[in-house]
Design brief:
about 550 residues; alpha/beta; Rossmann fold; Domain 2, N(10)-formyltetrahydrofolate synthetase; 4 domains; twelve-stranded mixed β-sheet; four-stranded mixed β-sheet; 21 helices; 25 strands; globular
């Protein structure tokens, strides 16, 4: 089979204005970024049409380091729905350069289920990530300058809560000291970098409903605490207008196309292990304005992405998903069944059966949110028919939920027709139940954390560091206890231990720190040893990326 990039290059792309026309998006509402990419004006959102659209969430079991294939399934489902005559649009997150040049090599789907042009989407795209990085670091520079210029007037911050960001995996920048050298270089202080997807600006962009809301949220960003114990925000700095100006174009969702010429929105890119893991509300609502069925994904496993999709994005945006699809692979199930990682591609029925505990727990969690759930089995060429049918029997006969094979990677839309028909039939025959949240807004911070940790992760107890306890008091003083929580933890386990496969049972859930995202209106809870600036692997994907005769190789 051809590589992803070879398949992408073999597709004759439509001009993006034609894609917009076929989707019903008026041409006056789009701004071209070349022939095959456009920005779409968020003011085209029609809430009445949004409420009539069928929103479908794609999530997954706890993934292997190679992933589970949610993006491929999401795109494949959109292709399959089109094959059976439905108006379907997929709404995804933008790839980050960190993983593209680090572990993954790309995040635009795979095989014959991709969004295109894949090279541009995986690299600089429309510059949204650069705008977010620049806006975030502009605040850092302006804050440092303010402190430097006001140092002789008695003004200072006893605590600085704002770090810097960069869209590169760079472990050396996690903790740094700035302002070294002569006094003209600024104040000497500790700082550090997070990766751009973890930026509060990224979360704000993804949750803002319009330009005015974007500015309001930027004004509210908490930068630090003054010497007299007062909060110091971007509004106090007086630069919210300038930062909003930097994000003016980035706020508009990006329109691209699938390998079969259908519309796709790709916008925003927070990671679900260190942020809320969902694409922008604007992109989702634009897709729902013009699509009968809209497929979106939430990052990593359902314990992270799906929980945050419901408790943060849906709560804030008033979205009501009609169906949740959980993606499973034989390799992933075998990993959770205790099969060693170097043997998960080999047939192992007993290991597969033991791994059912992981998908069962995820399904139970999803159903606790009031969701109708079906399973999409993402098939690989190493899977045996016996293994596939074993998973089908477990889902349909033992759990009583729908099951379909996704083979869109190899066959495009034709390989997702079974899944598409199951989706339509399930939505038509299942009653629409209101979304149930894991916690209520009025719950205490500890109450919210403990409900997610015990109900979703299976923890027996939650413990807090002295730093986390101090932040809880600060949250109470600031009056922001009502914010939803965004737990940052490993994506490879229900627990805070990345090697605790299967289902964690009775473990201690330790909260190390809490970050107040006052502009994004959420509390980021740092659990275990999770880092918000990843490092590069021993053999980064950058070693395989090259350009020859003007064409890029190595992206996948």
């Amino acid at each position: 089979m051809k590589s992803d990039i070879e398949i992408a290059r073999s597709v004759q792309l439509k001009k993006i204005k034609l894609v917009a026309d076929e989707t019903g998006i008026p041409r006056e509402g789009i701004e071209n970024y070349g022939r095959y990419i456009a920005k779409v004006d968020g003011r085209l959102i029609d809430e009445d049409r949004v409420n009539k659209s069928n929103l479908i969430l794609v999530t997954a079991i706890t993934p292997t380091k190679a992933g589970i294939g949610k993006t491929t399934v999401s795109i494949g489902l959109a292709l399959g729905l089109k094959k059976i005559g439905k108006q379907a649009i997929v709404a995804l997150r933008e790839p980050s350069l960190g993983p593209c040049f680090g572990m993954k090599g790309g995040a635009a789907g795979g095989g014959y289920a991709q969004v295109l042009p894949m090279e541009k989407i995986n690299l600089h795209f429309t510059g949204d990530f650069h705008a977010i990085t620049s806006a975030h670091n502009m605040i850092s520079a302006l804050l440092d300058n303010y402190l430097y210029q006001q140092r002789d007037n008695g003004f200072g911050l006893k605590e600085i809560l704002w770090r810097r960001v960069l869209d590169v995996n760079d472990r050396s920048l996690r903790y740094i000291v700035t302002g070294l050298g002569p006094k003209s270089n600024g104040l000497t202080q500790e700082s550090g970098f997070d990766i751009t997807p973890a930026s509060e600006i990224m979360a704000i962009l993804c949750l803002a409903k319009d330009e005015a809301d974007l500015r309001r949220r930027i004004e509210n960003i908490l930068l630090g605490i003054t010497l007299d114990d007062k909060p110091f925000t971007v509004k106090d700095l007086g630069v919210a207008g300038a930062i909003t100006a930097l994000l003016k174009d980035a706020l508009h969702p990006n329109l691209v196309q699938t390998t079969e010429g259908g519309a796709a929105f790709v916008h925003g890119g927070p990671f679900a292990n260190i942020a809320h893991g969902c694409n922008s509300v604007l992109a989702t609502k634009l897709a729902m304005t013009f699509g009968e069925y809209v497929i979106t994904e939430a990052g990593f496993g359902a314990d992270l992405g799906a929980e945050k999709f419901y408790d943060i994005k849906c709560r804030k945006a008033g979205l009501q998903p009609r169906l949740t699809i959980i993606v499973a692979t034989a390799q992933g199930l075998k990993m959770h069944g205790g099969v060693s990682l170097d043997k998960i591609k080999e047939p192992d029925v007993e290991g597969l059966k033991k791994g059912f505990c992981n998908i069962d727990k995820h399904i139970k969690n999803l159903q606790s949110f009031g969701q109708t759930v079906i399973v999409a089995f993402n098939r690989y060429n190493t899977d045996t028919d016996e293994e596939v049918e074993l998973v089908r029997h477990h889902c349909e006969k033992e759990l009583g939920i729908g099951f379909a094979i996704n083979d869109a990677f190899a066959k495009g839309g034709e390989g997702a027709i079974e899944l598409a028909q199951l989706v339509v039939n399930t939505i038509q025959t299942s009653p629409s139940a209101p979304l149930q949240f894991a916690y209520q807004s009025e719950d205490s911070v500890e109450g919210k954390i403990e409900k997610v940790a015990t109900k979703i992760y299976n923890s027996s107890m939650v413990t807090y560091s002295s730093v986390a306890r101090k932040m809880i008091k600060k949250i109470q003083q600031l009056g922001v206890e009502h914010f939803p929580i965004c737990i940052a933890k490993t994506q490879y386990s229900f627990s805070t231990d990345p090697k605790m496969y299967g289902v964690a049972d009775g473990m201690e859930f330790h909260v190390r720190d809490i970050v107040i995202n006052q502009g994004a209106e959420m509390l980021v809870v740092i659990a275990g040893d999770i880092l918000r600036m990843p490092g590069l692997p021993k053999e980064p994907q950058a070693l395989h990326i090259d350009i020859k005769n003007g064409q890029i190789d190595g992206l996948s």
